[in-house]
Amino acid sequence: MNTNYVVETKGLGKSFKVASRSGAGFGAALKAFFKPEYKTVEAVVNVNFKLPEGEIRALIGPNGAGKSTLIKILCGVLHPTSGELNCLGVEPWKERLDYVRKIGAVFGQKTQLMWDLPASDSFLLNKKIYKISEDTYKRSLEYFKDKFALSDVLERPVRSLSLGERMKCELVAALLHEPALVFLDEPTIGMDILAKETVRRFVHDVNKDKKVSFILTTHDLGDVENLCKRITVINSGNIVFDKNMDDLRFAYGGSKLLSVRFTQPMDVKKIKDALEVSEDGMSAVWELPGHMDSYGSVIAKLTNEYPVADITIKNPEIETIIHDLYTAKK
Amino acid sequence: MKKLHNLSLPAEAVSLFFFNSKMLLMRMMQYRFNFIMGLLVAFGFSALGPLAQFMLYSNSNGYPGWNWDQILLFQAVLLLVNGLTDILFGSVRGTIDTLMERGEFDRMLLRPYPPLMMLLTSGFKPYGLGTVVVGTAGMLWSVIRIGVPAGLTGFVFFFIFLLARILLQAGVHILYCFFTVRWIYPMRLGEITDKILAYGNYPMEIYPIVLRTLFTTALPFAIACYWPAKALLGPVSWTAFTALGGTILFVLVTVLLWKHQLKSYVSGGG
Questions:
Q1: A159 contact B CB<8A
Q2: Which of A63, A79, A97 sits opposite B113 (nearest CB)?
Q3: Are both A170 and A291 inside the same structural domain?
Q4: When comparing pLDDT for A32 and B27, which is higher?
Q5: Where are the beta strands (DSSP E) in A21-81?
């Protein structure tokens, strides 16, 4: 497959044969022991996916949707059962040893750092394994140390680092060999809001400075909103949405919420068609269609009818949109 | 280019083994008391081993066809090979067990080396050092007492069979890794392989002819200690080379099994 993309898949599929047992209890276990039954699970179905160079792409979906299987195929860990795949000019599972030199991977719940030693020692192991030249190693390490204030962090045993500090070190370990493509799986899981911000800034800056492409899988939609312009949603092994965030809001956004604060308490009975009105009559909320060309006429009407002090139009929460997308029928 | 890459792999494996060993030592030294106690216990246990053997064999008839000095040499060689295989591969089982139990084997596949090489080069276990020191000392003492009847050739064959013994152990660990990746929990497989390998801890003369043939061909356990010790004691017979061939074949089969298993690896969920 000839491609201008960092990653391109055509009709990619992966199925597994998994043990299946009918019923529970010892009898069923005994039956399965002597006569095991299997069923085929289609984990990834006809996936067409493209990632241009230098993009941060969110790959999201509910648990069991096929995200991890797709990521493992793209990483070269698993081979597909059907379809075509090209990552950085090669088929990952066929040329895995050469391919993995060009990629990085961070799995938020699993570490590649040696727990007992400072992260700098794990970096030395990566330097050895990825055959990173002394110049590149020094240059990369200096960049990360300066950019993300890592000087103190690198010399302490990993076990004594906070989750945010450890994740920064995980990211450095995945980036030291200057990969063109990095897979991030739940990089902010379990972090407080400050640590999340730091990790997001880290990814954003590396993407901007080093033109590294990222594929981000996460359940934290804050990561998606802050880092990605485009989002790919996978459900039951199929890609169900693959467009920009704005398109997502437009397609699945439903309605917007218009909140009005009044200059004086209003008689609740006189407020027409509101979704909710505060008890003191000082504010009200109206629901508006999500796809209006202009909201000016609505605002003008409200300011004519009521003593308006302030107006806010809120987009629907991204969580709501994604929830609708996950639960929508294929 | 790919062929050149493959040719450099053995050298890279040796280099990676030393690097990984250094890292493991650094990790162990983080826990001073545990590290020092571990080394002391390993040395003490290894030193007491020959004493126990002395008491056992001085109060028994020993092995048929072997005098006391030869038995001591045999036991010293046994300690040396056990120590060496422990130093080289002692941590392999623990590593693959942990990786599979935690669902972290994928990490091996994200490294730019064959996963088998990554596993075997992370096998260093320093506690085998005491056994090697005691085994070497015992062997030298025996050699000084009884000499090396086969001369320089004896030493050459000794080293060839020693390398074959190490290769056999690598094969056993590859087989263990194969079963662990296949079954996730290979239960008592490690114990079973240890018990089977223990057949190589005795001179072949004690076994009936059928087992002796088996241990020098299809299951080449005679290479474990018998032939390295025999090489120092006199000219080796052609059956030694059958065991050598059997070892190479055994390792090739385990590598093929591993490669086959890797192709059908499905990874963990999540």
A1: no
A2: A97
A3: no
A4: B27
A5: 37-51, 56-60
User: Does some domain include residue A55?
Assistant: yes
Pick from A73, A64, A17: nearest CA to A236: A64
Between chains, do B110 and A75 touch, taking CB under 8 Å as contact?
A: yes
Q: How many structural domains are present in chain B? A: 1
Structural domains counted in chain A: 2
Task: For residues A285 and A236, state if they share a domain.
Answer: no
Task: Let me know whether A133 and A233 are in one domain.
Answer: yes
B41 in any annotated domain:
no
Dihedral pair phi/psi, residue A257, rounded to 5°: -110, 125
DSSP string, B25-81: HHHHHTSHHHHHHHHHHHHHHHHHHHHHHHHHHHTS--STT--HHHHHHHHHHHHHH
End-to-end CA distance of chain B: 37
Contacts of residue A188, Cβ cutoff 8 Å, sequence gap at least 6: A108, A167, A195, A196, A199, A200, A218, A220, A222, A223
DSSP track, A31-45 = HHHHS-EEEEEEEEE
- The C-alpha of A280 sits at a distance from chain B's nearest C-alpha, in angstroms, of 49
B164: containing domain: 150-270
Q: Per-residue pLDDT averaged across B140-162, rounded?
A: 87
| Co-location of A163 and A242 in the same domain | yes
Q: How far is CA A114 from CA A139, A189, B52, in A?
A: 23, 20, 40
Quote the CA–CA distance of A65 and B88 in Å, as a whole number.
42
Same domain, A262 and A234: no
pTM of the model: 0.83
Which of A77, A129, A130 is opposite residue B109, by nearest beta carbon?
Answer: A77
Report yes or no on B125 lying in a domain.
Answer: no
Please indicate, yes or no, whether residues A76 and A157 belong to a single structural domain of this protein: yes
Q: Would you call B30 and A157 a contact, using CB atoms and an 8 Å cutoff?
A: yes
Is the ipTM beyond the 0.90 threshold?
no
Instruction: Show which residues on chain B lie within 8 Å of chain A, measured between beta carbons.
Output: 5, 15-16, 19-20, 23, 26-27, 30-31, 102-104, 106-107, 109-114, 263, 265-267, 269-270
Write the residue in B30, B109, B114 that is nearest to A76 by C-beta: B109
Q: Please, what sign has the CA dihedral across residues A205, A210, A213, A218?
A: negative
Q: Which of A82, A65, A72, A71 is nearest to A236 (CA)?
A: A65
For residue range A200-226, list pLDDT tens digits in order.
Answer: 999 999 999 999 999 999 888 889 989
- The answer to whether the CB atoms of A96 and B109 lie below 8 A apart is yes
So what's the pLDDT on residue B119? 96
Q: Which chain A residues have a beta carbon less than 8 Å from that of B269?
A: 64, 68
State whether A244 and A194 are in the same domain: yes
Domain with residue A58: its CATH number is 3.40.50.300
Exposure of B37 in the CB half-sphere (CA atoms within 13 A): 4
* CA A55 remoteness from chain centre: 13
Determine which helix (DSSP H) or strand (DSSP E) holds B183, and give its type and residue range.
Answer: helix B151-183
The domain in which residue A308 lies consists of 254-314
- Look at B23 and A96 and tell me if their CB atoms are within 8 Å: no
Residue with the two structure tokens 């993300």:
A148
Structure tokens at A267: 């008689």
- Judge: A78–B265 Cβ closer than 8 Å, yes or no: yes
**Domain assignment present for B207:** yes
Strand-pairing partners, residue B180, are: none
A96 touches chain B (CB under 8 A): yes
Same domain, A234 and A275: no
Structure tokens at A24: 């529970």
- Report yes or no on A35 lying in a domain: no
